[in-house]
Amino acid sequence: MESDVKKLADLLGSSNAMLIFTGAGISTGSGIPDFRGPDGVWKKRQPVYYHNFMRSEAARLEHWDYKLEGWPQFRAARPNATHEAIVQLERAGKVRAVVTQNIDGLHSRAGTSSNKLIELHGTNSFVECQSCGRLSDPEPHFEEFGRTRRPPVCHCGGFLKPATISFGQNLRSEVLESAQEAAKHADLAVALGSTLSVYPAANIPLITAGKGAPYVIINRGETEHDGMPEVTLRIEADVTEVFPAAVKQALA
User: Fold this and answer.
1) pLDDT digit string (tens) for 21-49?
2) Is 219 exposed, middle or buried (0-12, 13-18, 19+ CB in 10 A)?
């Protein structure tokens, strides 16, 4: 493991425009549940698809009920050493972009700059009207839903939904394009805590690797990119046990 940390530190130290791609595995240490792991959320609940949310009151009720169940954990979660290490790399001028599949807002809370952060699947930090696009603070809506058990609606009459990408809902084209553009200009791709199984998101680090740049994967458990010739270094471990230590070495 020490040799892997040293190899990673050398790659981080040599980079001046890295792409950091993050998944649920970096946030489990902050109390955010994984979605696809052995005890993941989707083992216990079936996701509500976007088209059902938009046409069915029962589906909206189910979705808000699921979101209310997890809200206390999201609200209480704080960034961990991995989020903080990413910020350290950015402050050292080494980060081109942080592309995340996570919806927990922890990169922002840790201090990742908004102009570096690309949240592919949206964020739980806001509620969004599906008609007019207005963003608002989630807390009052969760309080109202908990009290009335009626899915909240916007002043314009549109349906309100946490500002995350639901199953069956397309990624925002401008967000995906920003991630792809950043990947084209990165000199290193580092995937942290992702199974790399959700597309098109999982293609992002491969864009960087495809132009010959080094590609590092750190994850506890298999990923869909394991064994690909583009992968320079694959570390089987909890991200928080490896990445912050490598960043410390790289910036020493």
Assistant:
1) 999 999 998 988 765 554 555 456 688 99
2) buried
Q: In whole angstroms, give the CA distance from residue 226 to residue 17.
A: 24
Can you tell me the mean pLDDT for 120-141? 96
The percent of the chain in helix, strand and coil, each rounded to the nearest 5, is 45, 20, 40
Whether this prediction's pTM lies above 0.85 is answered by yes
121 is catalytic: yes
SS3 of 12, please? helix
Compute the Cα dihedral for 43, 44, 45, 46 and give only its sign: positive
Side-chain half-sphere CA neighbours of 15 within 13 A: 29
Q: How many helices (H) and strands (E) does the chain have?
A: 9, 9
C-alpha–C-alpha distance, residues 110 and 102, integer Å: 14
CA distance 250 to 252: 6
Query: What is the pLDDT, as a whole number, of residue 2?
Result: 84
3-class DSSP assignment, residue 72: helix
Residue tagged active-site, from 83, 107, 121, 225: 121
Identify the pLDDT of residue 215.
98
Q: Can you say whether the dihedral through the CA atoms of 134, 183, 167, 121 is positive or negative?
A: negative
